[in-house]
Design goal:
Shape: globular
Number of domains: 3
Largest sheet: none
Radius of gyration: 22 Å
Strand content: under 5%
Number of strands: 0
Distance between the termini: 11 Å
Number of helices: 19
CATH class of the largest domain: Mainly Alpha
CATH topology of the largest domain: Growth Hormone, Chain: A
Structural class: mainly alpha
CATH architecture of the largest domain: Up-down Bundle
């Protein structure tokens, strides 16, 4: 996420300690960050209801989540640079206004196509809004107060991780005013309007004295390449894998080659490429980028197939599915705090590698339980594998950013941090696209009503084998990370990077 990029050049004249307006500004930007985080987690739990009520196809339900992730990833770095150039407050307000409007369009979508389009718009607006949040904090608070502020952000991350699925489940179950799943989006409207009105009054404007230029051609090439890869993946099964799909996916790699060539020329011309290619000469950074991307793929696959398994395969209600996930969220939050504060300072890279093995072991345990208990599995029987998986994920997600940045030159720390979180979102979108292959590809096209649930349970187990394999790849890639990750950036910026990684992870 590019807000770290801006913090390195943010003004060092924050509001005085006696200015209480800064705490109101903090509440406003934290509300926006919470709204974005919850919006990511709240949608998954409602996907089966959306599919049932709207008659959405397999590809459409994938794009409801993947479209958001793709637009968010493609716009993160540009959104941050726009804030540098035109003002963080201005871009934040514009982003939150657009995010609120997009939420309304999602809530009142007349068909699946409109919902997908609104979700893509929502992701683009989040990319404009979210990068400004921590930059505004950095520009508003003196250094000695930032530890407390970032601690609050950590609490917000944990709260959002737990409350998002539960809130989505409750809003879907309650069927408020007969709107079914739509309140999961409409709930953003009052929050967005209040944040917009108060933000205009209490947030102080700030800009970067030396902002990097925009790279819109780079953004266009990244977006085109991902679309050429993802669209055939999500539609291929429904269209019986046409030839043009394979041509498109092969062509995507040609687009990425063109992106590399263009970024080299852009760096030589004005020093402000979208992707700082020189970073990839740092072995630990290149491996870390691979870890973030592949980790995003694993999460993209797991979270979508998990909710489909529980609600369609097992026939559970959204509320039961949401409550079942609470042990996982609590384990992630607990292990993340323990990892950063106690374990990594003592054991270094081994903690991250242990996290990959623990998460993989949790996946294997889940496969075994899903196979043993089949359709009769209970929520409490899922608790153990979910806690093991959550513990492994927590050991990875919090310290990973510092490990990847550890050997990056200080002058490139901001660009590196922005790229780390961007590729994780891209990996997430790719994982969601792969659901067509690893999950729906196992389910037959013409199933009787009696065959649907067993087919979804079997497909879930098949998809989890893919996730377990991905965790093995991540473990191997982590061997290239520094044995003892060192904080090479100033304390406040390091804390920003850690919080950002959790926010989008």
């Amino acid at each position: 996420m590019t807000s770290t990029e801006q913090t390195l050049s943010a003004p060092r004249t924050p509001a005085g300690p006696g200015d209480r307006r800064r705490w109101l500004a903090l509440a406003i930007v934290m509300a926006a960050a919470f709204m974005d985080l919850v919006d990511v987690t709240i949608v998954n739990i409602a996907i089966p209801s959306i599919q049932r009520d709207e008659g959405a196809s397999v590809g459409q339900i994938q794009w409801i989540t993947a479209g958001y992730a793709l637009a968010f990833a493609a716009g993160l770095i540009t959104g941050g640079r726009l804030g540098d150039i035109h003002g963080r407050k201005r871009l934040f307000l514009l982003g939150i206004a657009g995010f609120t409007l997009a939420s309304a369009l999602c809530g009142f979508a007349a068909n699946p196509e409109m919902l997908v389009a609104a979700r893509i718009l929502q992701g683009g607006m989040a990319a404009m809004m979210v990068p400004q949040v921590l930059s505004i904090v950095h520009a508003t608070f003196p250094a000695h107060e930032r530890g407390k502020v970032f601690g609050l952000f950590g609490a917000i991350v944990g709260l959002g991780a737990v409350s998002g699925p539960l809130l989505g489940a409750l809003l879907t179950e309650w069927n408020l005013f007969g709107l079914e799943w739509r309140p999961i989006f409409l709930i953003n409207l009052p929050v967005g309007v209040v944040a917009l009105l108060l933000g205009r009054r209490f947030i102080t404007e700030s800009r970067a004295p030396k902002a990097l230029k925009l790279d819109l051609v780079g953004v266009a090439l990244v977006t085109l390449g991902l679309l050429m890869l993802l669209y055939p993946l999500t539609r291929g099964r429904e269209l019986h894998w046409p030839v043009w799909g394979y041509v498109s996916m092969a062509g995507a790699f040609g687009v990425f080659v063109a992106l590399v060539a263009y970024e080299r020329r852009k760096a030589a011309r004005d020093g402000s490429p979208l992707v700082e290619l020189s970073l990839f000469r740092v072995k630990s950074f290149a491996a870390g980028i691979a870890v973030q991307t592949v980790f995003g793929v694993a999460l993209g696959i797991f979270f979508l197939v998990w909710t489909l398994y529980m609600q369609i395969g097992l026939g559970w209600s959204p509320l039961r599915a949401g409550l079942t996930g609470v042990p996982f969220s609590l384990a992630v939050s607990t292990a993340a705090g323990l990892s950063v504060q106690k374990l990594v300072p003592r054991f270094g890279r081994k903690v991250l590698q242990a996290g990959a093995l623990v998460m993989g072991a949790g996946v294997l345990l889940y496969i075994w339980e899903a196979h043993r208990y089949g359709l009769s599995i209970a929520s409490w029987q899922m608790a153990l594998p979910l806690v093991v998986m959550g513990t492994g994920m927590g050991l990875i997600v919090a310290p990973l950013t510092d490990a990847v940045l550890s050997e990056v030159p200080r002058e490139h720390a901001g660009s590196a941090s922005g790229l780390i979180n961007t590729v994780q979102q891209m990996g997430n979108a790719l994982g969601l696209g792969l659901v067509s292959v690893v999950f729906f590809g196992v389910i037959g096209d013409r199933l009787t009503r009696a065959e649907v649930r067993p087919a979804f349970v079997h497909a879930f187990q098949h998809a989890l084998w893919w996730v377990a394999g991905v965790m093995g790849v991540i473990f191997l890639l982590m061997s290239a990370l520094p044995k003892r990750p060192a904080q090479h950036v100033e304390g406040a910026v390091a804390e920003v990077a850690a919080v950002e990684s959790a926010l989008v992870g």
